[in-house]
Specification:
Elements (H helix, E strand, L loop, with lengths): L1 H19 L6 H89 L3 E6 L4 E4 L1 H7 L3 H4 L4 H4 L7 H10 L3 E10 L2 E13 L4 E9 L1 H47 L5 H9 L4 H10 L2 H26 L7 E3 L1 H15 L5 E6 L6 E3 L1 H19 L8 E8 L3 E8 L6 H5 L18 H12 L3 E6 L5 E8 L16
Parallel strand pairs: 7-9
Antiparallel strand pairs: 1-2, 1-5, 3-4, 4-5, 6-8, 9-10, 10-12, 11-12
């Protein structure tokens, strides 16, 4: 446009002389001037358009290059975003795999803890429950969802530990243990071991309480201790029997000879009395008046009672003299009850619950009957002579796959754990002096365990009665059928 304006100015200047003398200018000159002006204008326009086209071309080229550069940058950015996105997906995948692994591990650990027979309880240092396994739910009847985040004393008030013990254990960092804790479930005495393990973690400080039922272990230990006592007593009895029997025999023979020497029925006694001008009748009257006859009778009874004690002691030092053969346990029990009825004028109500399908037992019928009589007599003595219609003694016979089980249960006053722990010990008795030797249950224990390979246990709660359980191994099916031996009469 600037070029066109310049050309126009030049043409005006050139035409000025001509225009000054308009009369001299012809129409042809004006035509040529106009043509020249138009040509110049056209040339200017063509040049301007060419320059604009070149500028547009350069602008398009620059735009194209900018577009290519921008596309390259967008492509690089897109590729970078794809790489970042792929890395993000990989990271998410790894996190999901880790989370799945953690969940599986947690479920596995929970399965292990819940499958353990031990009670496992996790608590904070303030006593709030953080974990409650299946054994804890089974023992307390409280589900895990109801126990979590509750205080231990509110959920498990019978637990024999308090918050101070838990706090002291956590602070000390040393496990706390309490063994053979006595608890009563369904009328039976159970034993537990309790351990508190301090647990110190980054997120929280607490403890793990573990409770193990060791009832079977305690019973086995007690049986082993009892067996050791029986063996010791057997060795002691072997030495004592001969030492005691000799002077005891002399005492009993002396009492018998005194009775014979003062008996009016012997001719030698009458002849000796006449030689000394004595009357045997007067002598007997004197002995009765001075209660010398009663003294002699007391000596005889004490001697015989001592002889019975020595006989019982000898049972510990020698194997059973009774023949081992198959016998009907049901028949033994019924016959024993008949003997008791004939022995005592009054007995509490004796209830029988006998499984007639119990097979024959290999052993000594007389010895098992002795065990039964000892147990029933003890039950009757525990109830006492002033019993009423509400008192009873129950004899039960049942079986498992391997044992025949004889139970003698009474409605008596029961006994404390301290007494039950020593009930099978030799010479241990709660009866008054002169009313018991303390060997009846010891002999029964020895007969069942040593002679018949079984076991005998006692379960008692003060005020709720006592139950003795005798387990005798059943004879294998290959044993022949042998008629039962004669019972005690």
């Amino acid at each position: 446009m600037q070029l066109i304006a310049a050309l126009t100015s030049i043409l005006i200047l050139l035409a000025q002389p001509v225009w000054a003398d308009t009369t001299a200018v012809s129409e042809r000159d004006w035509l040529w001037v106009t043509i020249i002006i138009l040509l110049l204008l056209q040339s200017g326009l063509i040049i301007g358009m060419q320059r604009s086209r070149l500028k547009l071309k350069h602008a398009r080229q620059a735009l194209f290059e900018s577009q290519k550069e921008l596309e390259a940058k967008v492509s690089d950015r897109t590729e970078s975003l794809h790489r970042t996105n792929d890395q993000l997906y990989e990271e998410i995948g790894r996190h999901e795999a880790t989370e799945l692994l953690l969940r599986e591990t947690q479920e596995y650990l929970h399965s292990i803890i819940n499958s353990m027979p031990s009670v496992i309880i996790g608590v904070t240092h303030r006593g709030f429950i953080t974990h409650w396994n299946a054994a804890a739910s089974e023992k307390t009847g409280i589900e895990s969802a109801d126990a979590l985040n509750k205080h231990l004393r509110d959920v498990y008030p019978s637990l024999p530990v308090d918050g101070d013990i838990i706090s002291d254990t956590i602070e000390a960092g040393i496990p706390y243990t309490s063994q053979n804790i006595q608890e009563t479930y369904a009328g039976e005495l159970h034993y537990s071991d309790l351990t508190i393990y301090p647990l110190i973690a980054v997120q929280a400080i607490g403890a793990v309480i573990r409770i193990d039922d060791v009832t079977m272990r305690v019973r086995v230990e007690n049986m082993m201790i009892q067996n050791e006592k029986m063996l010791s007593l057997g060795e002691l009895a072997a030495g004592m029997a001969h030492e005691i029997n000799n002077p005891l025999s002399t005492i009993l023979h002396g009492v018998q000879n005194i009775y014979r020497r003062i008996s009016p029925s012997l001719a030698a006694n009458k002849e000796a009395a006449q030689n000394h001008n004595l009357s045997l009748e007067q002598l007997m009257a004197y002995l009765d008046e001075r209660k010398i006859s009663q003294f002699l009778e007391d000596i005889r009874e004490a001697g015989e009672r001592s002889a019975d004690i020595v006989t019982n002691m000898l049972d510990f030092s020698r194997s059973s003299g009774q023949s081992q053969r198959l016998f009907d346990l049901t028949h033994v029990i019924r016959h024993g009850v008949e003997l008791l009825a004939a022995e005592r004028a009054q007995l509490p109500d004796i209830r029988l619950a006998l499984d007639s399908a119990v097979p024959q037992i290999m052993g000594s019928a007389a010895e098992i009957q002795q065990v039964l009589l000892n147990l029933v007599r003890n039950a009757a003595q525990a109830i006492g002579d002033d019993f009423d219609n509400s008192d009873w003694i129950k004899i039960t016979l049942r079986q498992t796959d391997v044992d025949a089980i004889l139970e003698v249960e009474d409605s008596g006053p029961g006994m404390a754990e301290e007494v039950a722990r020593h009930i099978f010990e030799p010479f241990f008795t709660t009866k008054e002096i002169g009313q018991g030797t303390g060997l009846g249950l010891s002999v029964s224990y020895f007969i069942v365990t040593e002679h018949h390979g079984g076991s005998i246990e006692v379960s008692s709660t003060p005020g709720e009665g006592t139950r003795f359980t005798v387990k005798l191994p059943k004879q294998s099916a290959s044993a022949g059928s042998i008629s039962p031996p004669p019972l005690l009469h």
